[in-house]
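Good morning C.,

I know you're traveling, so I'll keep this short. The sequence:
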Amino acid sequence: MESAGVALGHGHEHEHHGPPPANRSSRVEAQFLGMLLFIISEIMLFGAFFTAYFFIRVVNGVDWPAQGEELPKLIAGVNTAILISSSFTMHWALEGAKNENRYGLRAGLLTTFLLGLTFLTIQINEYVHLGFAPHDHAQGSVFYGLTGLHGAHVFVGLTLLLFATIRAFRGHFTPKEHRGVEVPGIYWHFVDVMWILVYFSLYVL
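The tokens, ready to paste straight into the viewer:
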């Protein structure tokens, strides 16, 4: 009887109330899912601006850029190379976090931030020296709209990178806990890809 009571008590210790726990293999972390959904919404936003661009240029067949205007293709090309380079340094930072390489993590984040800041500074300088304004013609509105929208996303990315860099120098990230680097990294790669599309659409084609 005593053994039966022990067995019964042992059974009560492991009794589970409520629904069974979710299968961890099917769960997506909230930060990753939130960033993914946000990027999807941003793709649709950029899509609206690209639609306006192609409607003006392809459907209406107007000159691009407007007649008498010129876009700084060489400067934009250098700026593109700068932003693409920042994707590699961002990857370096993430690998540093995963492998407990503090130097790689900190140097990668700081370099990415500085490259992004350089890109944004060059773009603002480009605006200052352009010979047209958004209200001059439809081409100007679309150009400033697309590049300005992307510039705003770069600014948001730089803010995220700044917080991640500060945390990295305070020793917050580990090989098991590095979402604070990975999530901003996903956003930053998205920003880079969108700029490549903007650059080839507006400056090259």
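Safe travels,
E.
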